[in-house]
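Why Proteasome accessory factor B? Reviewers of the renewal asked for a concrete example.
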Amino acid sequence: MVTENAGASPVPVEERLFSLVLALLASEAGLTKNEILSSVQGYRQKYAFAGDNSSLERQFERDKDDIRELGVPLETIEPLDEPGSNHNLRYRIPKGDYDLPADIVFSPEEITLLNLAALAWREGSLSRESRHALLKLRSLGVDSIEPVLGYAPRIRTREAAFDPLTDALGRRVLVRFAYLKPGDLAPRERTVAPLALVQHQGRWHVQGIDQDVVEPRTFLLSRIVGPVTRTRIPFHSDETHAAESALEQLDAIWEANVAVVRARADSDAETRLMKRRGSIRVSPTELSLHFTDPHLLADELAGFGPEVFVVSPPELQLAVRKRLQLTVATHTSDKREGGGHRAEETV
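Here is what the prediction returned.
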C-alpha cells in the first residue's frame, strides 16, 4: 500500500531537501531511515509499507550527500544496544552545530532583509507541507524543542539552463543549446527532446533524446554555454520513468569509476574527501573515491594543490597535472606582465 496517490505531482528537489533538514532539526534523538521515508515530504509520496523501497533508499543516500555538500552537519548515530547495526541507525542535525557563529553580527538593514527572507519561507508554498511534516513527526512521538520554521538550507543556485529546460519539459517541445564537452575547443549546438531533469552528486543533468543521433544522452547543465532556445517542435515519448532511468545510469557510471588518491594526513583535502559518498580508506595515506565525471573530479582535486596526489587512474593523474601546470603558467605570466609594467613606469 502506498501512502499517497501514485499519480501525485513529483516533489521538487529543493522542497524534499528542505523537508528533510526540517525534520532532522526537529528531533534531538534523530530519526531512523524508515521513519524518514514514511513521514517526510518528498519520500512519503512514494513509500510502500511492507513493499520494495530500494529506489527510495538510494534517493535518500544521494540526498544525504547533497545536504552535507550544502554545509548541513548531518550525524549518524548507532543504537547503543546494537553496535554495528545499520538497520536502526538514526540521523540527526545537531542544532548547536547548525547555529551561526557567535561572533557574527548583522546590521539593522541586514536583519530586515533576513526577516523578509524568513517570511517568504514561512508564507510560501512550503508552509503547508512544513506544518504537515511537523504533524507527522509529532505522531511519531517526536517533539520539536524550538520552532524550526526559521531554518532553511542553503540551496545551491541553479544553472541558467534550468528554468527554460523545465518549461520545455512541461510543453514537450525540442530545445537547442550550445554544449561544450571537455577537451573541445568550441561548443557544438545540440537539439534535444528533454525527458527529465535530475540532480546527481549535487549537479544538475538533463536526460533527453539527442536528435542528431536519435539516441538518449545525459547532459551536464553547467556545460551548456549560452541560452537554451525552446522550439515549437513537439515530440512524443513513451518514456515514463526517465528520471529514475537517468539516475540509475549515473549511479552505474559512479559505481564503475574508482580513483585512488594520496591525501596529506589531517589536511583539508583528507577531511573533505573522506566525507564524499562511497569514500574508503585503503591504506593509512590512500583513499578510494568513486566518481561520475573525471574532469569534474580533476577540477576538485587540483583545487587541493599539494595536499593530494593521484595514484590512479593514469588519465585522472594527467588531467590534474595539466590543471596544476596551467595554474603555474597563468601565475608566471601574470608576474611577468606585472614586472614589465613596473619597469615601464620607472623609466
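DSSP finds eleven helices and twelve strands in the chain. This is the kind of structural detail the renewal will allow us to pursue systematically.
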